[in-house]
Design goal:
18 helices, about 80% helix
């Protein structure tokens, strides 16, 4: 739709028709088209119109609502497959939990973006390849590579969702940054949905218990399971139909948490030295340390994806730059600990996976930090930072493919 918008800049009536046919899709496409010709008067008018903070909550089109309802029910049914067909839950859920939601979200965006048959075939083929492969792997209870494959399969399916969201492979970084922003918005709105669900669950079970009816087991097995499976789908629908729902909240969260995380991280590194705990000899501590690294990186990327769409003050850019620099220190500690453990006890699937992931993260952080300090010191925009992040995302996809599909073969399911 982006090309259609740019091609009809001399035809206001056609733009209005495109907008009324698919308002959420038009808004997403306009966000990509506007930066290419920001001085165009007609685009300026549409920018003012689309960024006006409407107080109304849109319900989207009827077709979209029906699609979301059907997808939510399908997600719940997939989650209940072990109960329906008496499948082994310990076998089913670790391997197939990603297929409860990700393929349905991919189908949603494929439908919204009107993906071509070739791109749709790629999405279906990639999802089916993951489904068949992970379920054909032998059920080895003590296999580290099986666990790694199951975990990285989630990232693989997330990457396929990103491909679908962006409408395919694009040279422009904007679709990938929008995808990162969508993930941040989805976390916010899904968390709110789940909090409301918890409150409703407590009230419902409490009310029925007052009249002597115990519905707890039934409610948890069906209502809660279907609700958990549907929450990301409903959250996606709400964020796409009503960008203003979290459009104001997400930037505020990014601005608040970035300096707080920076202070926490510095204090944590100092406290780690005095505590005597280190990731070199403590495996569990190393795992927590890497989880911290990934979480901080996610905050940086989310903040940059938000900043690329709005103005950012110079102090805020400096906070991101310093946070990124401190994260490099965290990554360096984790990487040295992994190398120490490999040199001392040898290579294992877990150590190989963590080593590869940390090396990729370190390279990405160095590129991002360089751009952030350049933007902070030279008062530049964060466009270069966003471009670095967006162009590096396929590298992570390649790594997830290697760990998901090749590690079980390389290490013989050890």
């Amino acid at each position: 739709m982006k090309n259609a918008i740019l091609a009809n800049l001399d035809n206001p009536g056609q733009l209005e028709r495109l907008y009324r046919e698919d308002k959420p899709g038009f808004k997403r496409a306009f966000q990509a088209a506007y930066p290419e010709q920001p001085d165009n008067p007609l685009l300026g008018f549409w920018h003012a119109r689309l960024t006006y903070a409407s107080e109304e909550v849109s319900g989207g089109s009827r077709q979209e609502l029906v699609f979301v309802i059907i997808a939510s029910l399908l997600a719940g049914l997939i989650a209940k497959l072990p109960a329906i067909f008496a499948l082994n839950e310990e076998f089913f859920y670790p391997r197939n939990v990603g297929f409860i939601v990700f393929p349905l979200l991919s189908a949603y965006f494929a439908w919204k973006n009107r993906l071509s048959p070739g791109k749709s075939a790629f999405v279906v083929g990639a999802s089916l390849a993951g489904l068949v492969y992970i379920n054909l792997l032998p059920d080895v209870k003590t296999s580290d590579t099986l666990l790694l494959s199951c975990v990285h399969l989630l990232l693989f399916l997330w990457s396929v969702l990103g491909f679908t969201y962006a409408g395919g492979i694009s040279r422009s970084p904007e679709p990938r940054l929008r995808f990162l922003k969508y993930n941040g918005d989805l976390v916010v709105i899904t968390t709110l949905i789940l909090i409301a669900g918890v409150l409703m669950t407590g009230i419902t079970i409490g009310l029925f218990s007052l009249i002597g009816i115990n519905i707890e087991q039934f409610y948890v097995q069906y209502v809660v399971v279907f609700g958990l499976a549907a929450a990301p789908i409903v959250g996606t629908y709400l964020t796409q139909a009503n960008p203003q729902l979290v459009g104001r909240v997400s930037p505020v969260i990014a601005r608040i948490f970035s300096p707080l995380v920076l202070v926490m991280l510095v204090i944590y590194l100092v406290a780690m030295v005095y505590s005597g705990k280190d990731p070199y000899n403590d495996r569990e501590f190393l795992l927590i340390f890497n989880a911290l690294l990934i979480g901080v990186m996610a905050i940086i990327f989310f903040s940059v994806s938000e900043s690329s769409r709005s103005s950012k003050t110079r102090p805020e850019v400096w906070v991101l730059a310093l946070l990124s620099a401190v994260t490099i220190v965290v990554n360096g500690v984790a990487l040295s600990a992994i190398l120490f453990r490999i040199s001392t006890w040898g290579i294992t699937p877990n150590r190989a996976a963590v080593l590869g992931g940390n090396v990729l993260i370190l390279i990405n952080l160095l590129l991002v930090t360089t751009q952030l300090f350049r933007a902070a010191s030279q008062k530049r925009s964060l466009g270069g930072v966003g471009e670095v992040i967006a162009r590096y995302l396929p590298v992570y996809f390649v790594w997830t493919v290697i760990v998901t599909f090749l590690f079980p073969l390389f290490f013989n399911l050890k």
